[in-house]
Amino acid sequence: MTFDLFFSGQVEKQLEKSYAPIEGEVAKPVVVAKEIDPFSMLLLGIDQRENEPSRSDTLIYSVVRPQDSKVLLISIPRDTYTEIVGKDKEDKINHAYAYGGEKMAKDTVKNFIGYDLDYYAAINFEGLREVVDALGGIELPITEDIVNKEKDHEKFTIKAGKPLYDGQEALNYVRYREDSGVNRTKRHQVFLNALVDRMLKLNQVSKIPDLIDMLGDNFKTDMQPNSIIELAKTILLGGRPEISGFTIVGEGKRMNGVYYDIANEEDLAFAKQMIENWSNPDTKTEELIKPESREQE
Fold it and tell me: Cα(186)–Cα(174) distance, rounded to whole angstroms?
């Protein structure tokens, strides 16, 4: 009620700045009803640094079930070898964004996964630094110091065991690249969980307009502003959203001197099975296929 009375109109106006439908596509409106059907969204984490082109370091096929307050995140490692739709070549999947922005990234992920995508949301990592600082930091499960030290990489150290990590440390956490691509992808899932946990733990509705304002030009989506607001209320009224994550693991391979990840076919098949299961509005909560069920096999 507080949000509707004091902040809803302000937030909708701010979100209008981030509304960026893909040219040639008709954005799907979310039908606001007693029950909102599951929908899919491509989450893109964009890392653009000085003197470098934009690249999508994070690609996540997500399925959101608003009525259950549940979200499925299927992470695709950035070096995954696949067809780049619209470029007539095979390359690392994260190159799709560099070649053709959100449209090419969306088309390429749809082709790789084999299922349609209703929406996309792209966030530049730089915009998250201010958000994390505004929340007073976030909790991250860092048990050993993380040191980025290779000569061609940005140098930084993240100390282990801190109760909270500030915006720059959180940014370094998602950027760290001196272990496997799979681990890096899992860190992105951990970060998203930590950010949601912190926002809900603080329970400060009044911060929402400021947080969206901080994202500014660093956030783009083709979901309409009023739809975002209605969905957020539906999901949060169901309690803390439960986020389930799965990563499509790849086997490293060099081709013509370039390193690629060749997706594990069993992982890809299991990801597709989960997407179909979660996307079906008739699937009962207790029937949802969870990522851990594969680990138990």
Answer: 9
Query: Which domains are assigned to the chain?
Result: 2-132+167-295 (3.40.630.190)
Reported as a single tens digit per residue, the pLDDT across 1-25 is 555 655 566 677 778 888 888 987 8
Angle at 8 between CA 66 and CA 206, to 5 degrees: 95
Q: Do β-strands 89-92 and 156-158 pair in parallel, antiparallel, or remain unpaired?
A: unpaired
Half-sphere exposure of 58 (CA within 13 A, CB side): 31
Neighbours of 268 (CB within 10 A): 19
pLDDT in tens, 33-68: 567 889 999 999 887 665 566 667 789 999 999 888
Please give the span between the terminal C-alpha atoms of the chain, in angstroms, as a whole number: 45
Question: How far, in Å, CA of 177 to CA of 147, rounded?
Answer: 10
Question: Could you tell me where the DSSP H helices lie in 176-279?
Answer: 181-202, 208-215, 225-237, 265-279
